[in-house]
Design goal:
By secondary structure, this protein is an all-alpha fold. The protein is 65% helix and 0% strand. Helix 7 packs across helix 8 and helix 11 runs parallel beside helix 13. The longest helix has 23 residues. It is globular. The N and C termini lie far apart (47 Å).
Length: 407
Amino acid sequence: MSTAALDAVFRAAGGRIIAALAARFRNLDLAEECFAEACARAVSGWSRELPRDPAGWLYRVAERAALDQLRRAGTRETAILPEPEPEPTAEDLMMADARLIPDQRLQLIFVCCHPAIHAEARAALTLRLVCGLSTEEIARAFLISEPTLAQRLVRAKKKIAVAGIRFQTPGPDAWPDRLDAVLSTIEVAYAHAHADGAGSGRHADYASEMLGITATLASMMPAEAEVLALAAMVRFAEARRPARTNPDGGMVPLSEQDPARWDAALIAQGRAYFGAAARLAPRAPRVVAALLHAEWCARPSLAEPPPWANILTIYDALLTVRDDVITRLNRAVALAEVVGREAALEEVDALDAPGLAHFLPYHAVRAGLLSRLGLNGAAREAYDAALALGPGEAERQWLERRRSEVA
């Protein structure tokens, strides 16, 4: 069996199994460690064929590893472990009370975004536990250093242990306190999938998964404007995926994509969600952000010029409700088209965040501006910095082509 197939199974089942183990043993570190041990055993044990129930096999092996570890540590009597029910299935253990939140991954996201955990660590912990993102990937997404993120994760796990936080499905009364962290988690997870235009990376499956997750969340909380706005954003972005690569597999920038290749059905769904969100709270940050996508998806054809002036206006409005480095970086792209490249480069060079040097879009945007200003040596260095950060295949082709065009 191929390594890629094994990896797909581990990633698909990992979040559910770790959460089930954490609920049973009330120890997140133990859950992660024993799941890793089960995966290691699967690499050799599944070399020829998959078991009938891969998730169940991984859970049982991890469960036995955890019990063995607790016995060896002499803590079996003090672990307060519940006796297992007579031969429950792995799905029984992993999907307790699925009626409240009818999506497995979304259920786990709500569980991990407990309000007792510090706000800055909730989304990061969830991305690590449920979505399987590495510490490096999460640190880049939040523009912080890996050591800082690692410390936050350690503190979050300690909080879970000390406070006795149970890994159980929260009821509707608990949703509002967890909502912002849940939405942030979904945004970052989807951003990792969206950054891979060709859909060839290890997080590519998140793109289609987030369509289902945001639909479920919108049905759960139909009066929450930012929930509806996020559902709209994901649909607008996924609608453009068919036009994001050329026949050679290289990336096609948004301004050069052929709207005729976009998915009209997804755009219609996005407009419906966006309309409802805008009626509820037109100035909410995610609603304004969704307006950017709606504006692009309103472009009828390549014959129509890109709506740069409108995009810049919307970014200016977004800065009044969400002023952060990523918003300003994206705004600089529109600023270059409307005001000028010099002004845009000045804005980009003024950006300041601890993890900016490891943020690929920063180097890509800066490289493009430097190249268009004729600053070829600096442009090549910026392209090299972007390429060194391991872009997806489509993005790598585009960056290499642009670098080769620099005189």
